Input
Amino acid sequence: MAWLIALVLALPAVAAVAAWARNDVAARVSGAVLGAATFACCVAAAMVVAGSGPAEVTRWLRVDELSVIFLLATGFLYMVSAMYSAGLLAHTSDDVYRRRLLSGLHLFALAMLAVPVVNEIALLWTAIEVTTVISALLVMLEDTEPALEAAWKYILIASAGLGIALLATILMYFAGTVAFGAHYQPYLDLLARHAGTYPPVVTELVLVLAVLGFGTKVGFFPVHTWLPDAHSEAATPVSALLSGSLLGVSFYAILRYYVIARAAIGPDVPRRTLLGFGIATLLLAALYLLRQGNIKRLLAYSSIEHMGILAIACGFGAPLALAGMLLQVLAHAAAKSTAFFGAGALTLRFGGRDLSLMRGGLSALPWSGSMFLMAVLALAAAPPFGIFRSEFQIVLGGLSAGSYGPVTVMVVLVTVAFFGLALHATRILLSPLPPGVGRAEASPWTLAAMACGVIALLVLGIHPPTDLALLLERAASHLGAR
Output
């Protein structure tokens, strides 16, 4: 396992260096190859954990059933984003932009891959802070006034949130002094094992601060306002990583604090806290999805919607709901990357992100338009894709937990979001092609990246692999499923 984790962290670093190669083709293709190799190592690590249980590389680096789910999601996003970038930058004459985007993309992936691997609360906070710095620079890289404004807004709001998360980290260390004394290393597994000895009031405060602080990066209401701007102004592969992976690994940090708080003070307060944030976030996203004029902002609010669903699922606390939540992490990564790549192809074809410009997408882009449609249907929780399966599990889990009111609210809001996505997708893809817009197709790299996402969605929806199903069950148990 040690060499697998070393490769997971080393390969993106090698790709970041290779991105500065003088040979344009070598820089792009090596990134795609190393991205695929990184995902293969993530899959291998998941198989080891499924067969042998948690693995500790050092006391600072550890993977268990929960962390490996987020490692898989991030590794997959990294692979397909590197593939898409190889096609996107094929005709770029600006070598400086190409090198900066590729190297930043690889370093961003490296920082996100480190989040589920580290086994110490200060390192967890540091890794998420590093993702903020790198992703903000990637948004700025577009060098337009809206992009610079979005990047600064992101930095200010995320920094404030992570300041709150840092306070949660410090108070968590303080709570641990009751069990370990004034000087100790706050390893995540160690803190969880001895959580029953922590002061309840301090632990409750830690949980609320962690949810609010890291929730800024997740996109929880009311600290979500940076997200639509940053996602819409960033380059398409960056938007895919922001939406499909960054939000997920930030939610992973919340889950680690949730595990500790649940063991320390019982399930009621942690569940109610996440349920409240989740319903408010889902309500906001569902309403905003009905009226959007920018295709990437549409997908950004869809991401907020799915983060709300994750929080609600965790709030239900039932084994089936928690397993569905973790399956949703994987399915959302596949669906959102495919949707953003399709949005990128549509933007290039119609000359802008404005939804009013986009008509006849299936005629203009037969293959990528079709896969974009499948991704949107998946995001809307239509069968037979993975998100339908995960949300079905979440609803059943909520009913089994007796949370009839929250389940009803969730189903109503998800239905509203479905109509919002379906309305915009119908206008974009199924209306007549405007005069003067030719028929063409995205690059083979784009089609390959989108095809990977669609295949993953079908596999997750129809029959998840046995080892993956076992990991999801064990991870749900790790979260304290009743």
